[in-house]
Each structure stands twice: as structure tokens, then as C-alpha cells.
């Protein structure tokens, strides 16, 4: 049978996970010298103490409330390097442009990439540009790759973890959580996906809900300075539900989330109610979930809240061996299992 690739195989959920494992990883040679290999499917990989990550961006439309494909490409790769605990050093930018794209739009996007890279202190130092005939792709796609390195701050953070529990890892990995750890979310969720969907479809919520796209390297560095962080992940495609399930699967431990502690803006709630979406499934581009040792949780939270991107941070859950998978608990005592979305409910958001 001549099988074809379907959209949900690239949509960030359970089907994409299977697609990557069965149809891609099968064919790539496993090199034992790679410290954090591709097969771990973390946000970035590590070889020779260099953290390396890549991401292609196909967001539609190119410009949306709160950002554009350029700021998204720069911030997204900075964030994937930063959540390993690394200091991002430099980026590449690869452009594939459809013939006929407005030069004004192109230049404004590239200009924003420059602004975002400069503000976050991570320069774009290599790149590639291709123009393809009309119809070969839609408008404009950007690939960014990023490298990062370890810092004294990361080493000191790990020393702090070791004061409270055993820890034998050198990076912040999805598989590092243990019973007793707490989860901190850096701010409100759902804005990016809601802003894009609403703007694209003309629902009108975009007047109050804007994308949260932002580089998180400075916020994560600030949290690392407090010390006690074991894992970090940006809840992009598949949203918070996907991120926390990845933590649970890879760390082989249960996670209890406190539903009432998860910060969500009223506009996002309203849009999700109307459109029948779960805000926990919606992608974010400027948020991070940190796994931290219990004893440092309040101090890390206080530090994040002082950062301009972390005012609404909250402790949203805890790691426990008492349950399997991810369980959502409400203040009135109700409990339900929170699964990974099968695919992203809002397509083309990154
Ligand atoms: Mg990521």
C-alpha cells in the first residue's frame, strides 16, 4: 500500500511521537559518544559539551498579534537550548522564500529577528537563503539552529540540587524528575495558540490575547542562579499537557497538577470555552515549566516572579510515585487523568 504522510504526523502530539520514532530514528545511527542523543527527544542534544538544537517554522499567518515568524524562530531556538540549562551562544537562520513574497513583509520579519537576537544577546552568525517558485511552499519558512555551552551557573545549580537529593546528571533533562520535586510554570498559558487561531479565523479574541513569544534565556539564567532546578521544558506544541506527560513518561514517575494553580488569562478561558479547546493543549512560545527540588521551590518562584516575563509564575504541581501518569486535581477534590493531545488542536502555530 502506498501510505502517505498526514498533517497530524507533524503536529506535536502522540502521532508525531510515533512517526518520529518509527520512521526517522530507525534510520539514524546511534553514536555512543553523544552525551544527550537524538533518541532522548529532549529539547536539544549534547555532544562534546556543546548543546545543539534546530527548529523549522511554518507559522501562518507570518505576522500575528504579539509577534511574527522571525521573532518566533529566534526565541524558539534560544528557548530549546536554554531549557537544557545551557547558555545559548549563537544561532543560524535558513530562509526558504516563495517567489512573490512582499519585500516589505520579508524585511520587517528579518529586522525583527535581528532585534530579538540582539535583545537576548544571542547573535545570528550563519545562514542560508533560497527562493523557490510560486506554489512550492507557502510564503516563507524559516529554520533556526542554535548552540549553547555550560556555565558555572549550571554547575552551581546542580551542586545545590545535590544538597537535597541524589542527582547524577550534567544537564536539565526531561528524565531527571523524582518524587518530591515541584513543578513551577513561569506564567499564563494558551495565549500564543489562541491569538493565532483567533486572528487567522477572525474570532476577535486577539484584541485582548496576544502571543507570548519571547526568549527565556535570561529568566532561566536568573532561576539557575537560585539553584535547585533539575528539569526544564518549554510547553510549545501540545501545550502544558504534552510537556508534563513528557516529563512523566521520561522520568517514569507520576505527576499531580493542581488545576486551580495553573495561571490562565480570562480572554484565553473565554476563547477556549467558545471554541471547545482545552487551554492545557494549546501551544505557548514564551513559557517554561521547571522541575525543582522541593526545598528550593518557593525561593525559585520568588526569583522568577521578579523577572519581567515571570510575574504570573506559580507552583502548579508535584512529582509523586503515588500515581501513574499525569493527574489533574481541582480545589474541590475532583481528579482526572490528563493525557497528551493526539495532535495540536491549533495547526501551523509555529
Ligand atoms: Mg522545546
Structural key phrases:
alpha+beta; 14 strands; Phosphoribosyl-aminoimidazole Synthetase, Chain A, domain 2; binds magnesium ion; globular; 7-stranded mixed sheet; 60s Ribosomal Protein L30, Chain: A; single chain; 31% helix; 350 residues; 5-stranded mixed sheet
Topology (elements, then pairings):
Blueprint: H1 14-23, E1 45-47, E2 50-57, E3 63-64, E4 67-68, H2 69-82, E5 87-98, H3 103-120, E6 124-132, E7 140-149, H4 152-164, E8 182-185, H5 191-201, H6 217-226, E9 229-233, H7 239-251, E10 254-258, H8 266-275, E11 289-292, H9 297-306, E12 314-320, E13 326-329, E14 335-337
Parallel strand pairs: 5-6, 10-13
Antiparallel strand pairs: 1-2, 2-7, 3-4, 5-7, 8-11, 8-12, 9-11, 10-12, 13-14
Protein described:
The protein has 350 residues and is an alpha+beta fold. It folds into two domains: 7-149, 60s Ribosomal Protein L30, Chain: A (2-Layer Sandwich), CATH 3.30.1330; 152-337, Phosphoribosyl-aminoimidazole Synthetase, Chain A, domain 2. Helix content is 31%, strand content 22%. It contains nine helices and 14 strands. It has helices at 14-23, 69-82, 103-120, 152-164, 191-201, 217-226, 239-251, 266-275, 297-306; strands spanning 45-47, 50-57, 63-64, 67-68, 87-98, 124-132, 140-149, 182-185, 229-233, 254-258, 289-292, 314-320, 326-329, 335-337. The strands form three sheets. It has a seven-stranded mixed β-sheet. β5 (87-98), α3 and β6 form a beta-alpha-beta unit. α2 packs parallel to α3 (103-120). It starts with 13 loop residues before the first helix and ends in a 13-residue tail after the last strand. The model has no long low-confidence stretch (mean pLDDT 95). Residues 43, 80, 233-234, 236 line the site of magnesium ion (MG).
Amino acid at each position: 500500500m502506498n501510505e502517505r504522510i498526514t498533517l497530524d504526523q507533524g503536529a506535536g502530539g502522540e502521532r508525531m511521537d510515533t512517526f518520529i520514532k518509527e520512521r526517522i530514528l530507525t534510520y539514524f545511527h546511534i553514536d555512543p559518544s553523544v552525551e544527550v542523543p537524538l533518541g532522548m527527544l529532549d529539547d536539544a542534544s549534547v555532544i562534546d559539551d556543546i548543546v545543539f538544537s534546530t527548529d523549522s517554522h511554518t507559522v501562518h499567518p507570518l505576522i500575528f498579534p504579539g509577534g511574527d515568524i522571525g521573532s518566533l524562530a529566534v526565541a524558539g531556538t534560544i528557548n530549546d537550548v536554554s531549557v537544557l540549562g545551557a547558555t545559548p551562544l549563537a544561532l543560524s537562520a535558513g530562509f526558504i522564500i516563495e517567489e512573490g513574497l512582499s519585500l516589505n513583509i520579508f524585511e520587517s520579519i528579518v529586522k525583527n529577528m535581528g532585534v530579538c537576537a540582539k535583545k537576548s544577546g544571542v547573535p545570528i552568525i550563519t545562514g542560508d537563503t533560497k527562493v523557490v517558485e510560486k506554489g512550492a511552499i507557502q510564503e516563507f519558512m524559516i529554520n533556526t539552529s542554535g548552540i549553547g555551552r555550560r556555565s558555572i551557573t549550571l554547575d552551581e545549580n546542580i551542586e545545590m540540587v545535590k544538597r537535597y537529593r541524589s542527582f547524577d546528571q550534567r544537564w536539565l533533562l526531561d528524565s531527571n524528575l523524582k518524587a518530591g520535586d515541584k513543578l513551577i510554570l513561569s506564567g499564563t498559558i494558551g495565549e500564543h495558540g489562541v491569538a493565532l487561531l483567533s486572528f487567522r479565523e477572525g474570532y476577535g479574541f486577539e484584541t485582548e490575547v496576544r502571543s507570548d513569544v519571547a526568549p527565556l534565556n535570561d529568566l532561566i539564567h536568573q532561576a539557575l542562579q537560585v539553584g535547585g532546578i533539575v528539569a526544564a521544558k518549554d510547553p510549545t506544541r501540545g501545550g502544558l499537557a504534552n510537556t508534563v506527560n513528557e516529563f512523566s513518561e521520561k522520568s517514569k514517575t507520576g505527576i499531580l497538577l493542581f488545576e486551580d494553580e495553573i495561571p490562565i488569562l480570562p480572554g484565553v478561558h473565554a476563547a477556549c470555552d467558545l471554541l471547545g479547546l482545552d487551554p492545557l493543549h494549546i501551544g505557548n512560545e514564551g513559557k517554561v515549566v521547571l522541575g525543582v527540588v522541593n526545598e528550593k521551590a518557593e525561593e525559585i518562584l520568588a526569583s522568577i516572579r521578579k523577572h519581567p516575563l515571570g510575574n504570573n509564575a506559580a507552583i502548579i504541581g508535584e512529582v509523586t510515585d503515588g500515581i501513574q501518569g499525569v493527574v489533574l486535581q481541582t480545589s474541590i477534590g475532583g481528579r482526572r487523568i490528563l493525557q497528551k493531545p493526539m495532535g495540536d488542536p491549533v495547526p501551523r502555530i509555529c
